[in-house]
Specification:
The protein is α+β, with helices and mostly antiparallel strands. The protein has 22 helices and twelve strands. The chain has helices spanning 4-25, 46-49, 55-65, 85-94, 103-113, 122-132, 138-162, 172-189, 204-217, 220-230, 236-247, 251-280, 282-286, 295-305, 314-345, 347-364, 369-373, 376-388, 434-438, 441-444, 462-467, 489-503; strands spanning 68-72, 78-82, 99-100, 168-171, 394-399, 403-412, 418-424, 429-433, 507-511, 518-520, 526-528, 541-546. A hairpin with a 5-residue loop joins strand 6 and strand 7. The radius of gyration is 25 Å and the shape is globular. Pathway: Secondary metabolite biosynthesis; terpenoid biosynthesis. One of its GO terms (cellular component) is membrane.
Length: 547
Amino acid sequence: MATGTQVVGACVVSWATWKLMGWILKKDPLANIRGPPSSSRLLGNIGDMISTRGWAYHKHLADEYGGLSRVNGFLGGSALYVYDPKALQHIIVKEQYIYDEPPSFILGNEVVFGKGLLATLGDHHKKQRKALNPVFSTTHMREMVPIFYGVVNKLEAAFQKEVQNGPITFDVLSWMTRTALELVGQSGLGYSFDPLTEDGKEHPFSISLKQLIPAAQKVNVFRFVVLPRVCKLGPAWLRRAAVNLLSTFWTDLRRVRDIIDVMWNTSVEIYESKKAALKEGDQALESHVGRGKDIISILLKANMAASEVDRLPDEELIGQISTLTFAGMDTTSNALARILYQLTQHPDVQEKLRQEITEAQTKHGRLDYNELMGLPYLDAVCRETLRMFPPVPMLSRMARKDMVLPMSRAIVGVDGKEMREVVVPKGTRFFISALASNRNPELWGPDSYEWKPERWLSPLPAALVNAKVPGVYSHLMTFLGGGRACIGFKFSELEMKLVLAVLIPKFRFALEENKEIFWQMGTIVTPIIDEKDGSLQPQLPLTVSAV
């Protein structure tokens, strides 16, 4: 006779088998949407899409299947790859609180950064943005210009020292990254991370930020499978003890833990310093880097004066520090590196840009905010680079309930019939392609895959304007749109233009002979050189000379 344990065991196995068979035999509601065949039983097409050399694959998806296609996800599940402008408008703006970030994204960001902008949803996210919006306004950006010049002039001095004995090749990406961090540090946090000298010692916070993405990618199983299931189990001290235990034998997890600890401890140190200075009064703030005009100091002041309903707790304010620093460092530094690289590929554009900036500086002296923003060719070079080469080429969303997704252009289903809308079941994962949207030839014209700054000096195509792409910046999806658009896009724009306005008149940039740069696709696009030893260290060696 079977024991009770055996009966229970048999029931569990039967239930699991029944659920598994139901999942296998269940009809895929997205099956009629065309898409590529699966490349892997485990990963589907995900491996191709996130490959560091996935550029051709993404172009294939756009060219072959149009603005909406079905891709295979983990273990045979279906997801949607989308860049149709009407579908994007629906996802990013109209129904943005239904199509939200997947839970794994939100939970992962909370663990890494704390409860900042990247780790909140819905009304919670809106409350944080309401508190932060004033410090990212155009008015505040104007006030940031002197701080920006103070940092970028140090970069200029470092470059002058590098080229004093003639043309020299060095890693420009490293300098762009250090500068981006120092700009965020001084104007965002009122804190200096880097003296921007050749022999300057790198701050542990800077090292941690650079190592975060490569390290996190090595523990994807923990991030996407384990974390969503255990992140709320038990008190915080117990979860920390579990991570410490796992870290004793899981080296990659230990590295991520240590990186997060450095980031959090530095954020707390900066926050407590600002809070103490505020209590002492304006005179104490004057002695700090940024003299109290930095983003965090202003945010803290406003938060103290806010109503109980609008006030953010300390934990969330601390969470903004590493969130804003991470978001502002890698993306902008890699965008700047890409602009400099493009200028080496197009010396005529580099010379034309140099002439425009030099003439403006001869007329006005040091350019203020309005003068920087009023340079048409500088603006065109920046916009075109952000169009062709978005630093973050793909983002994800998940439908929180069953929806009907409209499209601006009909697609032909597997059954041969046209569809102008598709039924999207709750839980459907979306891959939003900023890359494909920004290069869509139906909107940008037949030369959409060419880097042509001049396109911004004439009226943009009517098809593009009428499409109403929901990007917050220049019909582009580079900074996204809607309630989760990049809050710091004006900060990023100012940084790029001011760095170029200082460097381009003084230095000439060229690509070193026999060095092939490859732009590696990833969460953030980075330049690398395929070294003989197999290392793939992000770098952009350019030959720099004085003008």
